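Hi! If you just cloned this repository, the fastest way to understand the data is to look at a raw example. We've pasted two of them here, unedited. The first protein comes first, obviously.
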Amino acid sequence: MKSVPFSRRQKEARKPLLALMEELREAVERGDWASARAARSAAWGEVNRLADNLTTEERKHLWRYKRRIVAGEVRDHARRAGRG
């Protein structure tokens, strides 16, 4: 199944979401969980503002990022607890 490319208006509407997704990706890579949670929350706000057909892949990525954030927080908490 071939996807239909986004129109110019749709691409423009998606720009804030894509910027937040990039911010989220960078925060997760840094292990900055507070910033990652804030970016993910803001991205969900943008997703909810847009039509479902414009955000299918981003919704999947946001759920994956949630699991990565939780796992990272648990791992970092365990490391800190082990040092005490």
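Ok, and the second one:
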Amino acid sequence: MPDVMYTTIEAIPRVLLLVVGILGLIFSIRGRAKGVSGLMVGAFVVMLVATAASIVWQFVALNLPSWVASERLTADEIRLIFLGVGVPLDAAALLSWLLVAIAVLKSGRQPRQPGVAPYPGPVNYPMAAQPGFPNPQPGNTQPGHPPSN
């Protein structure tokens, strides 16, 4: 099997991750209208960029035998190139998952509503009735039972 075929097969999980990232980006953009954190959108953008770059790098690395055959690069220089590309790709992937985790943690909190918080008042303070319902009587009564006088 040619090297391109092996590399294509090796790239399948990354392509699937790319599809998941695109779906996640679509759903997170839709969720922005419902109050989802912008961190989630950012996380999926970073994930897509890192995944696409890693797929491209995988095919660029196919030329490794020609790099070695040209004898212009030493083994240490090739190692340095792979390190220089691999570390930022891994850091971007880590950053995307970190942003997802922060966005998930933030989504568990109740969103802050603008305006003044309601005053709780005393515990047994009767509140005004909604339209169509009788006003509550002072004291502790159970629903459906008239207060005992």
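That's it. A detail worth noticing about the second one: The chain has a mean pLDDT of 80.
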